[in-house]
Amino acid sequence: PAALAADAGLAGAVLPALRADFEVYETYIPEAGRSPLSMPITALGGEDDDISRENLEAWSVETSSRLLGPEVFPGGHFFVDTRRAEVLATVAAQLEDTLRALPRSVLASTAEVPEVCAQETLQDVVLAIAAQRPDAEAIVDERERVTYGELAYRVRLLAATLQSQYLKGQAQQVVALTMPHDTTYITCMLGIFQAAGILLVIEAHFPEGLCKEICEESGAVAAVASEAHCPKFADVTGCQTLVLEGNWVATLAQSAKLDVELPAVNVQDTCILMMTSGTTGRPKTIAGTHFFTHL
């Protein structure tokens, strides 16, 4: 526009970005052999733009699903602004059609779910591998590499400790967990499952007040936390905290009763409570079964 060209300061701020856009447009070469997208692509255009319908239809090579459109609207290159309501209505309708085509649940999906998921819990699978290949590497973080044999021992150690000292032989008791996402975190998840508990995932960024509210509403009777995160549970009514820090395996081994009887666990038992992000308000709870944890 003439007004832009006449304003040296504004032109100096805008023109470098425009030049960069044109350079990318003129020099971009698609990566050879790249895979097409697995979701539908919507192609939209303006009647007075210099992009032909044929060029819009060429987007079909970029998807292994299907091309929606092309839909052509009155107007030029900026039809998205001049025909905003029509464009939004078209995109919304296509999204609704796409969502309606999706399976309503994992069980209704055409994807094959391994039979083991409906027969064994995740911790059972881990323990079975440990029995067959104890020296195989199971989990790794920046500090250590843990074999299946060691993982199975730690899971049993933690499950026995939770049952004998905190859950008192009861199944389906809620146990909160918050700590860095490392090998100990994975061990704690499996240990809570093995103890027939229900894991309540408490994210590290949750403030203490929200942590207290969530734990008390969920009926948490115990919490497992690192030393840095244990203050979150200090004021939670009826909740005892097991702090794991340093060489916690050796510490628990001194008092754990590995022969304690653990309650039976069924694949369809509830085993995990997760919270939504809370970006639109207070976090909401999502419950999952042992079958869910395989997925």
TrEMBL record:
GO MF entry, a single one? 2,3-dihydroxybenzoate-serine ligase activity
Gene3D superfamilies on file: alpha/beta hydrolase, N-terminal domain of ligase-like
**GO biological-process terms attached to the record:** amino acid activation for nonribosomal peptide biosynthetic process; enterobactin biosynthetic process
Identify the residues that the record assigns to the AMP-dependent synthetase/ligase domain, covering every copy: 130-290
According to the UniProt record, one GO cellular component term is: cytosol
Could you name the domain of life of the organism this protein comes from?
Eukaryota
Q: A Pfam family this protein belongs to? A: AMP-binding
Q: What is this protein called?
A: AMP-dependent synthetase/ligase domain-containing protein
Native source species: Strombidinopsis acuminata
